[in-house]
Specification:
Layout lengths: L7 H4 L3 E2 H11 L10 E5 L12 E2 L9 E2 L3 E4 L10 E10 L13 E5 L11 E4 L3 E4 L2 E4 L10 E2 L10 E3 L7 H9 L4 E5 L3 E7 L3 E2 L10 E2 L2 H11 L3 E8 L3 H14 L2 E5 L8 H9 L4 E8 L3 E8 L5 E7 L3 H19 L10 E5 L10 E10 L5 E5 L9 H4 L3 E5 L11 E6 L5
Parallel strand pairs: 1-19, 6-7, 14-17, 14-18, 15-16, 18-21, 19-23, 22-24
Antiparallel strand pairs: 2-13, 3-12, 4-11, 5-7, 5-8, 6-10, 9-10, 19-20, 20-21, 22-26, 23-24, 23-25, 25-26
Helix pairs in contact: 2-7, 4-7
The structure holds adenosine monophosphate and magnesium ion (MG).
Length: 427
């Protein structure tokens, strides 16, 4: 983190969000696809996993020219230019999975079902609803069809040897279907990222325990655990760590021994206890950043060295529950996906019209909890989901998106387009 200069917390300088994101992206390299990091999983268990190697197709898909419709297959050259086309049907039907090895002469046609292999020489299918079958003839109305229509070509979806799925793909349902369509039953995937998680703070109480005066329950650990699980990480839950050097040292040692990354919230990030900052500073090149954003200013990132010599990437998030989640989505999500070997990490970004005016000054990025929906006329519209206090989780649960106002942007007028990150695909 040397290129960032002195710790902004110390210098008082605020770091733009993009600079912080870039620094994280530069620092993190994907786990290499070595035997230690790769496993082969049956398709049924591969959803959401990161593909470890590109998959090339061993076959043409589809493997044969075939019919896209139920109807009659014939020679496209028989279509009449000026009037209806009349064909004489064979007394046969070609079904999917049962290729027809007879010959279909010019002027003749054969009944064919969707997916059936096109008989030799035929290139066109008239869908049944376009055919009039009467008096031993099949008639197709003038201009209803062009030669070559309704035939799927061999290799049209994917040619043999072509890249079917790129390495780094986070496998989605269609990807599993595509792999199966190639005859594959398993895929090489990256192992799950191991992420240690703990909360810090003497004022934090564990849910299920009584709440002493002045205490707040540890909500961050459960919200962040969910966020990490959605990313496909294996979470090592280290619980709640007191603001105490020995406890913190023990947690750091365990996290660095077992995990690829460590996510913490509260205390550590703020460095509100000096020994915390000291411990982290002596355990690696941790950057303590005051990021120009709201919510979520204090944030620390860097390689954390364990007593055993093993390092893990630290993402120390602010304690305020919404700030913790927002900084997770803005900084940790992409970083962790990248570490896990995923290549398609950016969140979905849409534009929507702001329902109301929003006051903002240039010089920091703002993330509002928001509801995006179809407004009058069907276009996307976005509005706040309630109080934007950094600790107010309720407006986060009622939101379905983050409304993002970039660093240089000033106030927004009602009706102006603003950037929106829908939670679907993000969280
Ligand atoms: P800090 O970053 O430690 O200064 O914490 C900022 C605010 O977030 C304080 O009000 C803390 O009580 C609260 N906070 C810190 N950690 C948690 C947590 N794990 N769950 C809920 N609130 C927290
Ligand atoms: Mg604290």
């Amino acid at each position: 983190m040397a290129e960032l200069g002195p710790s902004p917390l110390v210098s008082g300088r605020e770091l733009p969000v993009d600079a912080a994101r870039d620094a994280i992206a530069r620092a993190l390299q994907p786990l290499p696809p070595t035997p230690d990091n790769v496993l082969v999983l049956p398709l049924a268990q591969a959803l959401g996993r990161v593909l470890a190697a590109s998959i090339t197709s061993p076959i043409d898909v589809p493997a044969h020219d075939n019919s896209a419709m139920d109807g009659y297959a014939f020679h496209g050259a028989d279509l009449q230019a000026g009037g209806p086309t009349s064909l004489e049907p064979l007394d046969a039907t070609v079904y999917a999975g049962a290729p027809f090895d007879g010959e279909v002469a010019r002027g003749r046609c054969v009944r064919i079902m969707t997916g059936a292999v096109m008989p030799a020489g035929l290139d066109t299918v008239a869908p049944i609803e376009l055919c009039q079958v009467e008096g031993g003839r099949v008639t197709i109305a003038a201009g209803a069809l062009r030669a070559g229509e309704n035939r799927r070509r061999r290799g049209e979806d994917l040619a043999r040897g072509g890249v079917a799925l790129p390495a780094g793909r986070v496998l989605r349902p269609a990807d599993l279907g595509l792999a199966a369509s190639l005859g594959l039953e398993q895929l090489p995937v990256m192992r799950r990222l191991r992420v240690a998680l703990f909360s810090t703070g003497d004022e934090i109480a564990v849910p299920g325990q009584p709440q002493a005066p002045g205490q707040v329950y540890d909500s961050n650990r459960f919200a962040l655990m969910g966020a990490l699980q959605r990313l496909g990480a294996e979470v090592i839950d280290l619980g709640l760590v007191r603001d105490d050097p020995a406890a913190l040292r023990a947690a750091v040692d365990r996290a660095t021994a077992e995990a690829d990354a460590v996510v913490t919230s509260g205390g550590v990030s703020m460095g509100d206890a000096d020994y915390t900052r000291e411990l982290l500073a002596e355990r690696g090149e941790i950057g303590f950043w005051k990021v120009a954003m709201r919510p979520g200013r204090p944030f620390a990132f860097g390689p954390l060295q364990g007593a055993g010599g093993r390092a893990a990437w630290l993402f120390a998030l602010p304690g305020n529950p919404v700030a913790a989640l927002v900084t997770f989505y803005v900084f940790a999500r992409e970083g962790l996906l990248r570490l896990a070997g995923a290549t398609d990490a950016p969140p979905t970004r849409l534009l929507a019209r702001s329902a109301v005016a929003i006051r903002k000054r240039p010089g920091r990025t703002e993330y509002q909890r928001a509801i995006v929906e179809r407004g009058a006329g069907g276009a996307l519209q976005v509005r706040s989901s309630g109080s934007q206090g950094a600790g107010v989780l309720r407006s986060m649960t009622e939101a379905n998106a983050l409304l993002v106002l970039p660093h240089d942007r000033g106030s927004v007028e009602a009706g102006e387009l603003v950037e929106v990150w829908p939670f679907d695909g993000l969280v």
